[in-house]
Amino acid sequence: MRICTRLRPDVLLLDVAMPGTGGLQALKQLSQEAPSVRTLVLTAGLDSLAVSTALELGARGVLLKGSATTLLFESIRSITKEEYWLGCNAAGQMVDTRRDVPGADLRAVATNKYRLTPRELEVVSRVASGESNKQIGEALSMRENTVKHHLTSIFDKTGVFSRLELAVFAMNHGLIEN
């Protein structure tokens, strides 16, 4: 922690199962003391609640320890571009876990607050489940460009900048139906 706060690296690979303080506690401390450091959390398994917590504490991505080297490099490139890194399966698991959290009945209030249309809510739900624009278009019988148009509108209304941020936002603000 001392070295990281002193040197302020561009990217930090942080093991969530770190001895002593623990990875999530270290992440919380880092986000306060060195917020410019982009942290990629390494984990042996994708515990949905831990993934969500890591993102809320400032992690820019989560990667399985056993992942291929090419994925490690790709994830590092993503977070250095101010993007988030999280596989679709992990996003889907995270959504499923958070759907069981009390407060999902706030959906009607949240949708009014953000002025999302019913169609936009369908897109949000499918993005949160990890579907690509092409998959969403096929499922909702619309062109891929129309999906992109909806996403632009959704991003503007909610103030998010990426699909991952949208998924986390939707879970935290009750935009996803149970």
What would your notes on this structure say?
With 178 residues, the protein is mainly alpha-helical. It folds into two domains: 2-86, Rossmann fold (3-Layer(aba) Sandwich), CATH 3.40.50; 97-172, Winged helix-like DNA-binding domain superfamily/Winged helix DNA-binding domain (Arc Repressor Mutant, subunit A, Orthogonal Bundle). The protein contains ten helices and three strands. Strands 1-2-3 form a three-stranded parallel β-sheet, sandwiched between helices. α3 (48-56) links the parallel β2 and β3 (61-64). α3 packs across α5 (88-99), α5 (88-99) packs parallel to α10 and α7 (118-128) packs across α10 (163-172). The longest helix has 15 residues, at 144-158. It starts with a helix and ends in a 6-residue tail after the last helix. The relative contact order is 0.12. Mean pLDDT is 78; it is low at 101-106.
Keywords:
3 strands, 178 residues, Rossmann fold, mainly alpha, 57% helix, elongated, single chain, Arc Repressor Mutant, subunit A, three-stranded parallel beta sheet
Number of helices: 10
- Strand % is 5-15%
Q: What strand order characterises the main sheet?
A: 1-2-3
In the CATH scheme, the class of the largest domain would be Alpha Beta
Under the CATH scheme, the architecture of the largest domain is: 3-Layer(aba) Sandwich
Count all strands and give the number.
Answer: 3
* CATH superfamily heading of the largest domain: Response regulator
Category by helix and strand content: mainly alpha
* Sheet of most strands: 3 strands, parallel
What coarse outline follows from CA principal-axis ratios? elongated
Helix content: 55-70%
Uncertain regions spanning at least 5 consecutive residues: 101-106
Q: Mean pLDDT across all residues, rounded? A: 78
Order of helices and strands: HEHEHEHHHHHHH
- Number of structurally distinct domains: 2
How far is it from the N-terminal to the C-terminal residue, by CA? 40 Å
The gyration radius over C-alpha positions equals 17 Å
CATH topology of the largest domain, which one?
Rossmann fold
